[in-house]
Amino acid sequence: NNPMLRDGITGDWIGTFIGHKGAVWQARLSGDAGVAATGSADFTAKVWDTHSGECLFTFQHNHIVRAVAFPTHVNPQTLATGGFEKRLRIFDLMQTGSTSSSPTSADGTSVLPTNAASYEIGAGMHGGPIKSIVWGPDRNILISACDDKMVRWWDIRSRTPIASYGLDGVVGSCELNTLTASNVYRDPVLSIAAGKSAYFFSGINPGQLIKQVKTPHEVASVALNAAERKFIVGGSADTWVRVYSFDEERELDLHKGHHGPIWSTSFSPNGKLYATGSEDGTIKLWKFCKEPYGLWR
Questions:
Q1: Which string of b and e fits 25-35 if b means at least 16 CB within 10 Å?
Q2: Beta bridge partner(s), residue 158
């Protein structure tokens, strides 16, 4: 129930955010890491100050909040949420304020109602719980991945879809990978794990598929290191981490250690480490370079 902030190189504990009363399904940092957002099974999304640990906002929902996302720029002023309500909503953090008339949660912060300074995108168009939300480089475009096996790109100005793509399976993870190389991809790549495939879409051209890589295994998560032309996938059944060649689409390496499905994978900003988060209750850091780095020699 209590998300933690840790050092990205050593894994050392920095702090714990106290306040949720149910499992936390997703946590996101802002571009400058000044604030964090969490979505929980207690039907709330919270925004936190990462320096003090203070809960700044609590947004009440009518069902489990499965996904949260900030715009990619620093000092974000909006937050997108989605989940089992099957509603994609955007909250305005600048127009939302704590008032004396608002009920308070156990941690003392104001619990803001479901209609607090927010609006819905694509009302009634999601056919299942929203699994993931991604805000691309263009802050007017929002991406949602849903349990109806669809990925949708939205123009938040018109609140209408501008592209969609049907996947072969239920979405495991959906992340924007910004780790690029000038001679490979100058732009971010959207990586999606679904069924037994890893999908890679353009991060700036809505709906443009770069490639789909099919694997023999069910994949729960995927992360791309475009500079190394490799990607990693986490298994949902065999609990293993696999490294693949992006060009040759073949398995290069296999890492064991988890004892549950690996629902999250992510590279560090410099690409020398990647992290895996598992249902076994652990997060593991893996070295992705040949030279000594951090705690690894």
A1: bbbbebeeeeb
A2: none
